[in-house]
Design brief:
Layout (H helix, E strand, L loop, with lengths): L18 E3 L2 E3 L4 E5 L6 H14 L3 E3 L17 H14 L3 E4 L6 H7 L2 E4 L7 H7 L6 E4 L6 H12 L6 E5 L17 H8 L4 E3 L1 H5 L5 H10 L4 E5 L17 H19 L9
Parallel strand pairs: 3-4, 3-10, 4-5, 5-6, 6-7, 7-8, 8-9
Antiparallel strand pairs: 1-2
The protein binds phosphoenolpyruvate and manganese (II) ion.
Amino acid sequence: MERGQTSAAGLPATARRTVVVGGHEFGREFVIIAGPCAVESEEQTLTTAREVKAAGAHLLRGGAFKPRTAPTSFQGLGHPALEILQKARAETGLPIVTEVMDARDIETVAATADLLQVGSRNMQNFTLLSELGRIDKPVLLKRGMSATLSEWLSAADYILSGGNERVILCERGIRTFETTTRNTLDLSIVPAAKELSPLPVIVDPSHATGRASLIRPMSLAAVAAGADGLLIEVHPDPANAASDAGQQITPEAFRALARDVRALVIHLRGEVREAGVA
Ligand code: PEP
Ligand code: MN
């Protein structure tokens, strides 16, 4: 089978697939995921959850298990963070997106997450991907920082071929020679991925750029490139964040951005639907 003809599940790439998470339909609505890089405390997470909900975010993100480059960096609060995320969902109604790093944690993390994230560093953790193919929970598959489109789609096939068809792709920047930004946001991969795969594709400008000042222009550009949604890191006090301090935006900045993203989506694609922005 030539890549581009059909996915592992046998769907032609042109037949777009939608993935429903907590009532929001990726691939039909424009879905905004927002929240802190990591769950640091109940107060920090609940404050952020309330703020992003009021600003129009559809899902709340927050890392409990953090894949940090250095073992001495903050690794996340682990299980207590999952409880905090449950409280945030109970209070705001926002479905939860959080990362699973280890196949042994899938059951525990899936008990809290509405959407399980596989991070860039684990995109080719084939044991983890195969296990995620066996569960009944949607998966957000981030692009490996050095992965080609073909490798990324093959990683998705590990999940799809196990029977789990609810996979969403997330472009989060790739390694290039450029050091001005943390990674290089590869926006051309959004329409390119859609030519070869029926899966929804969202964009994470936060990890792609590493710089708060670049989140707004890259988010708007992602809408124009045809992304199905955004993942944006928001923190009530970015300067003092335990991880990714330079790229997290304030709730105020997020509010203005979400408003303009919505306006651009409506301008380019028309029609607003109740659950989100179509
Ligand atoms: C994250 O989203 O929390 C994260 C660590 O991102 P990435 O895997 O893209 O680096
Ligand atoms: Mn982060």
